[in-house]
Amino acid sequence: MKPETGGDASSYVDNTIRMEQTLRGQTDADTVTVRVQDDDQASTEDAKLEQGKEYLLFLTASGEDNTYRVTGAMQGAYEVQADGTCVAWDGTKWTLQDAQKAIEQAK
What we know:
Shape: globular
Strand order of the largest sheet: 1-2-3-6-5
Largest sheet: 5 strands, mixed
Distance between the termini: 21 Å
């Protein structure tokens, strides 16, 4: 998923995310809106998404059409590196294949 645009909505920023692959769950949309805390309001635990970067995101529907929040704040966002490694906020690394296996086992 890659943030394409952002825009202020109160103390939140709505990021339009282009879906490249869904590992669990379903959506018919090519893009979804992921709402995160505005940088001025964010704590150190909040997920931060940067335009142009690729992420493995664990999302929870917000109850609004096609709008989601990152599950577990920053714990639900992994930046995908060029080699396919997914890096968590605390430096924990997963391969995308390991993430897929863990998600399959959790079903």
